[in-house]
Specification:
Strand content of chain A: 5-15%
Structural class of chain B: alpha+beta
Strand order of the largest sheet of chain A: 2-8-7-6-5-3-4
Number of domains of chain B: 1
Largest sheet of chain B: 3 strands, antiparallel
Number of domains of chain A: 2
Order of helices and strands of chain A: EHHEHEHEHEHEEEHEEHEEHHEH
Distance between the termini of chain B: 41 Å
Helix content of chain B: 40-55%
Strand order of the largest sheet of chain B: 1-2-3
Helix content of chain A: 25-40%
Oligomer: heterodimer
Distance between the termini of chain A: 34 Å
CATH architecture of the largest domain in chain A: 3-Layer(aba) Sandwich
CATH topology of the largest domain in chain A: Aspartate Aminotransferase, domain 2
Strand content of chain B: 15-25%
CATH class of the largest domain in chain A: Alpha Beta
Number of strands of chain B: 3
CATH topology of chain B: Sufe protein. Chain: A
Structural class of chain A: alpha/beta
Largest sheet of chain A: 7 strands, mixed
Number of strands of chain A: 13
Shape of chain B: globular
CATH class of chain B: Alpha Beta
Number of helices of chain B: 5
Largest interface: A-B, 24 and 25 residues
Chain lengths: ~375, ~130
């Protein structure tokens, strides 16, 4: 049996999305920038605009506030570097959290080299930001606050609405990396006072290599990719039209099926939680209630995470350790360290992330294999 | 699992000789607490030969596979042979070990060779 429980790393593209996209690789392949004189290109452009509309609707944004990019990393880079470039002469400071995705943290390192100041908000043992800390940290020099909507490793959902209130009151731009949350839980950019928001299609059953940045109208942000005139002169490069159209289709499906998926993954996650609670020495990381419905981060005393991963993989089950992107790195995850897990326990932590294609019988199989593995490897461990 | 050889996976999934030896002639420990790794080897020696090798292991897959391989390979072999090995021995016998897992594999060699050194010093493992 093959059981995929690593949906936070990437998801399987929905068949309906693939079907929709295929036409835009074959007969409708034309460049949408040539829509003035080619009916086929006009068709591509129209369909891309439908995609934009789908994204905007789900965010409660306007269509012309959605800019397509190559994915979450580019969107995060653009949001931060774009604001830095717009404030090049006067400089200023950025506020973020230590548990952001590397796409944010590394970008902040770059703008620091450019002469901007970076400040970090503390997080508690659940990885949760306290909005009061932001009130104390924000100054007249603050240009942008970047706090992720939901953490990719431990699933904690940050108090975005409270943060948005504070940034609005202070006239500071608010960016959120919503790569893990968009199309999985509700987002309203107006209610939450979000100015910039990053999304990536492959995290919600869309294609890889395409994403978007929501930019609130009136926000001063410089282009990050120079070149042609695409995306209202702000993001150059020939449109990845099949990808963008696939993204739009994935958003359309999520708009209709999100509630159903939430129920399904919550049910299956509870199956695992109930089983895990009966095994001694396993701790669930992240906030107990304010968390993504599909994420389960487990610290298993006296079982090495890589050993558990390999054992599960030999049995056809795919999960990840810490965060999938750092699987090749041997240092413990920065998120787990920040929430206070000692190195040793961080190396005993696995992440299970469910998705809409998982079946109850797969979870039953996982539970059996997992419990047997924990017992087996603990018996092998020295006292 | 393509990153590991069939032999590696066989040792990993069905590790040989796991356990402790009562009244061992030597005990050796290899430890890396930061990475959740600890291996303890127990040996019995007769006429300079390793007549029993057992171990307990907490660590990554390469720590388990290499400990299992060592316990099987060196049974009834002279202790002097065991002191000569390094990670090349593991590479030759477990297939292509990715470079990034060699650190953990080294722990098993260290624990095993520590057990032999401990035996040579008289097996006083309280020191």
């Amino acid at each position: 049996m093959y059981v995929y429980l690593n949906n936070a790393a990437t998801t399987k593209t929905d068949g309906r999305v693939l079907f929709k996209m295929s036409k835009y690789y074959s007969e409708l392949f034309e460049n949408p920038m040539t829509s003035n004189y080619s009916p086929l290109a006009k068709n591509v452009e129209d369909e891309m605009e439908n995609s934009r509309e789908n994204v905007a609707k789900l965010l409660n944004a306007k269509r012309d506030e959605i800019y397509f990019t190559s994915g979450g990393t580019e969107s995060d880079n653009w949001a931060i570097k774009g604001v830095a470039l717009s404030n090049w002469d006067k400089k200023g400071e950025f506020i973020s959290t230590p548990i952001e995705h590397m796409a944010v943290l590394k970008t902040l390192e770059t703008v620091k080299k450019w002469g901007f100041d970076i400040k970090f908000l503390p997080v508690d043992k659940y990885g949760m930001v306290d909005p009061n800390d932001l009130k104390n940290l924000i100054t007249k020099k603050t240009l942008l606050v970047s706090v992720m909507h939901a953490n990719n490793e431990i699933g904690t959902i940050e108090p975005i609405e409270e943060i948005g209130k504070i940034t609005k009151e202070n006239g500071v731009i608010f960016h959120t990396d919503a790569v893990q949350s968009f199309c999985h839980i509700d987002i309203d950019v107006n209610k939450m006072n979000i100015d910039l928001l990053s999304i990536s299609a492959h995290k919600f059953y869309g294609p890889k290599g395409v994403g978007a940045l929501y930019i609130r109208k009136g926000i001063d942000i410089s282009p990050f990719m120079d070149g042609g005139h695409q995306e209202n002169e702000l993001r150059s490069g020939t449109h990845n039209s099949p990808g963008i159209i696939g993204l739009g289709e994935a958003v359309k499906i999520a708009t209709e099926e999100m509630e159903e998926e939430k129920k399904s993954v919550l049910f299956m996650k509870k199956m695992i939680e109930d089983r895990v609670k009966n095994i001694e020495g396993i701790n669930i990381n992240g906030h107990p209630e304010k968390r993504l419905p599909n994420n389960l981060s487990l610290t298993i005393n006296r079982v090495n995470a890589e050993t558990m991963l390999t054992y599960l993989a030999v049995n056809g089950i795919i999960v990840s350790a810490g965060s999938a992107c750092s699987a090749k790195e041997k240092s413990a995850s920065h998120v787990l360290k920040t929430i206070g897990l000692p190195d040793e326990l961080a190396h005993n932590t696995i992440r299970i992330s469910l998705g809409k294609f998982n079946l109850v019988k797969e979870i039953e199989y996982f539970n059996e294999v997992f419990e047997y593995g924990v017992k087996k490897f603990r018996e092998m461990a020295p006292k | 699992m393509e990153i590991y050889s069939k032999t590696f996976i066989d040792h990993f999934m069905n590790p040989r000789n796991v356990g402790e030896i009562e009244n061992p002639d030597g005990i050796g420990i290899g430890e890396n607490p930061q990475k959740s790794g600890k291996i303890v080897f127990y040996i019995k020696v007769k006429d300079n030969k390793l007549i029993d090798i057992k171990y307990k292991v907490l660590g990554c897959p390469s720590a388990i596979s290499s400990s299992s391989l060592i316990s099987e390979f060196f049974r009834d072999k002279l202790i002097e042979n065991a002191l000569k090995i390094d990670t090349n021995f593991l590479k030759e016998n477990l297939g292509n070990l990715p470079e990034d897992v060699l650190e953990c594999a080294k722990l098993s060699i260290a624990a095993f060779q520590n057990a032999i050194l401990n035996y040579k010093k008289g097996g006083n493992y309280d020191n």
